[in-house]
Structures are given as structure tokens and as C-alpha cells.
């Protein structure tokens, strides 16, 4: 029974895991700028993430290690510190984007500038992690995240033609704005395939004491859950394509994204968008901050558990506290969260090999996984998507910074 | 006992005390080398200093500076005699109790700060 509940919750967790400021804003931008043409990037992002999440759950269930535990004891401290510094920098940027997303959502609803909301958002996020335990954070943000089903309803109300949407799922080359196309493609991949999710998911599996008997549940959660979350991200892209693309609107401000929801929901589209995004960003911010604390805690061998009172895991709780403060500071002085988001997502894509190559080596090591090591399909999918993301990131990030075509 | 590969089976593993509490990770291994004899494992070592040496020379000095100015008085390297190691596997198990060593010095120091924050218990 417990497993059925977990599988159900896992599906819902897919929303929390997938939909957050990165995937929503990159999907909306892609839809507005290129219509349905970039759906394929989302599709391969979703497939790759599903494989990675399945792997990190399997790793935890079989080896009773979290992914970070494995990285440290398989590759040693030197390599671990390089990976953790790189990943930590990206995680802090993502955290900044998520906190900014919550603040922007409140700005949308109140009309008062987002920097004013950063402090309250910071305090609420911190209190939620400080006072609650793992299950409440994971399940609470997932269940509240169900509100994002409004994106699916919006698509239904917009009556899109399914032919062109299916066509968009096939990769194609852009005819104009090549630099922007590839940059958006990289941002979508970066927003989908976030390494923090692997760390978070495997830490959750260890906190929940998974063993071999959870392998089926794990597979189900990874594939069905991520597909569920991913389809909602595709829904956001479709809304952007259907509403903003014909008007040639380039999304530069958060408010423009909210406006696209006023077509399917004239009265409360904006509020609906703001609340759904605010909740998913808050959930993601908590998960991201915790992932960072897990990463350092497990890497250095501290008491690391979200289920213990902060005083019982002092270094762990201090780590997420400091991370939250560091991420909030630039926002307090008005740094644009949309810009941070795009850069964070592209940098995630650029640093993927750093996080994923050692992870794949672990996943093929029978010392940890016994007979449950990776199969050819999983390895190939992840390697191909990782290489693609990396190459595109290396090419398109400089182009985007230079603003050229 | 099967042959132990000291780097693969011991180094970087988590150290767990007799009541299952995490003490840290094996950051270093201390060998004794007497002339004309086989080197022998004496201790496992962990703590900021050991890690700093592993990370590189440029990390050593800032780490020392930090340790001099912040943190618990009883910090630095912690060494556990090899005879206390009871089991090697997923973790390195030792027969000691973390509280009786300096392993949790930083944790306790930080806990004192955390304890002053409301809602930390």
C-alpha cells in the first residue's frame, strides 16, 4: 500500500521536479519566438531526465548510497571537490532564479516591485525547510503544484491543431534568428536536465530507506512522473506559440508570460499563472537549497538529514541557510530574475558533463549496483543528450552574450 | 580476511561509529614505514587539515588561518587507530563512539550557534 501511495505521489512529484521557473520561462519564450518548432528540445530533455532520475533512484535503492556518497568514495576527494564546486555554483544560480520567480509572481499579483518581496520569500522558504521535514516539502509542493494543470486546461481551451505540434516534436533547423534558436534550445535542455534533481531524488530515496523492492516503483515514478511534468511544460510552450507567436511578442518580461494565460482564461488567467508559478518556484527553491546541503553534507560526511531538528544536523542546516541568503542578495538589489534564469539554464547545460560523466561511471559499476547496472539504452540516451547539450552550450552561450546571429 | 585495497576499500568511505552515527569520511590514511619492513597501516585520519593537504598546497594556509580564528578549539586532524576499525564495506565501521572523539567538534560548535536560532530543536 505504501508503495502505491508513493507511486501516486511520485507522479505528482514529476510536476514539482519538472515545472519550475526554468522550464516554464524557457518553454514560453520558445513558443513565443519559434512557435511549435522547439518542442523536440523539450521532448529529448524529458526523456533524458527520466532516464537520469530512474538511474539515481536505482542507485540509491540498490547501493543504499546517495549519488553524492558514490561520487566521493568512488572518485576521491580531489575530483569530488571539482565537481561539487562547479555544481554548487550552478545550483546557487538556479536557487536565485527560483527565489526570483516566487518574488516576481507576487509582483504580478500585487503590482509592487519584486525586490520588495525577496526578503519575505527568503524568510518563508527558510522557515519551511527549517521547521518541516522531507516528506512535507516533497509532497506539499507536489500537491500544491497540481495547480499547474491549468496549463493543460489552457491548451484545451485554445484548440490548437495537433498536426503542427507533432511536427514540432521532430528536430528542425531555424530559418531566422539562429543564435537565439540554439540558445533557447540549450536553455530548454538545461532547464530539463538539472543535476540537482538527481542529488535530491537519491537523497530522498535514502531518507525513505528504499531497497531493491522499490525498483519497480522507482521506474514508474521516473518515467510516468517526468512525462507528466514534461507534458505540462510542452503545454506552456503551446500556449506561448498559440497566443504570443502570432503577435510577434518576444518575451523579455515576466508579465508578458502571464498575459498569454489571459487568452484562455480572460478573467483570472494572470492570477492563475502567478499563483501556479509562484508555488512551483517555491517548491523548487526548497528542493534546490536542500540539494546543495545534501551535496556538501554527504560529501564531507556530516549528519545530513532534513528529518532531524536543525540543531541535530547543524552544519547541514547552516549550509542551506547560507545558500538561501547568498542567492537572495543579488535579487534584493534588483538583479533581473529572467536574465538569471536563462543564464543559469544555459550554464547547467554547459556543465552537464561534469555532473553526468562520473554519474554514468557509477551507474555502470557492479560494486554499487550488483546486477542492476545500466543497460545500453540508458547509457546511450544520456550520453547523446549530454554531448548535444554541451556542444550547443559551448557554441551558443558566446553567441548569445555577443548578441550576434 | 580477503586482501584490502586500501585506496579503493578504505579511503573516502564514510566513517560510522558503534551507534551508527556518521563521524566523517576517511580523508587520509597514516602508514608507518620502518626501514627494511613492510609499510603498515596505523591510523585513518580525517578533518580539515588532511583534506586541505589533499586539495593542494594553496588550500593549506587559508584553512589553517580559518581554523585559528573561527571554529572549535579542539579541531584539526582526527586520527583513529586501525585496531578500532571493525568492518569495511559500504562504510568504515569503528568501535568508538563519535562523542568521545573530536570528530564532531565542528558539528557541536555549529550546533551551539544553530541552537540560538528559534525553532532549531
Protein described:
Chain A is mostly helical and 405 residues long. Helix content of chain A is 78%, strand content 0%. Chain A has helices at 2-18, 21-34, 39-63, 67-110, 115-131, 134-144, 149-158, 162-168, 178-192, 195-207, 215-244, 254-259, 269-300, 314-332, 337-350, 352-363, 366-369, 376-402. In chain A, helix 5 (115-131) crosses helix 13 (269-300). The longest helix of chain A has 44 residues, at 67-110. The model of chain A has no long low-confidence stretch (mean pLDDT 90). Chain B is globular and about 55 Å long. Chain B contains 4 helices and 7 strands. By secondary structure, chain B is of the alpha+beta class. The chains are: A mainly alpha (405), B alpha+beta (121). The A-B interface holds A 63-65, 69, 72-73, 76-78, 80-81, 127, 130-131, 299-304, 309-312, 314-315, 317-318 and B 7, 11-15, 21-25, 27, 46, 51, 54-55, 90, 106-108, 110-111, 113-115, 117, 119-121.
Key features of this structure:
A: 405 residues; mainly alpha; globular; B: alpha+beta; four-stranded mixed beta sheet; 31% helix; 25% strand
Q: How many whole angstroms does the radius of gyration of chain B measure?
A: 16 Å
In which order are the strands of the major sheet of chain B placed?
Answer: 2-1-7-6
> Which descriptor suits the 3D outline of chain B?
globular
Largest sheet report of chain A:
none
Kindly state the number of beta strands of chain B.
Answer: 7
Stretches with pLDDT under 50, minimum 5 residues of chain A: none
Overall structural class of chain B, as computed from helix and strand content, comes to alpha+beta
Q: Which residue ranges of chain B are poorly predicted, with pLDDT under 50 across at least 5 consecutive positions?
A: none
User: What is the CA-atom radius of gyration of chain A, in angstroms?
Assistant: 20 Å
Mean pLDDT of chain A: 90
Instruction: Please report the distance between the alpha carbons of the first and last residues of chain B.
Output: 44 Å
**Total of helices of chain B:** 4
The pair of chains with the biggest contact is: A-B, 28 and 29 residues
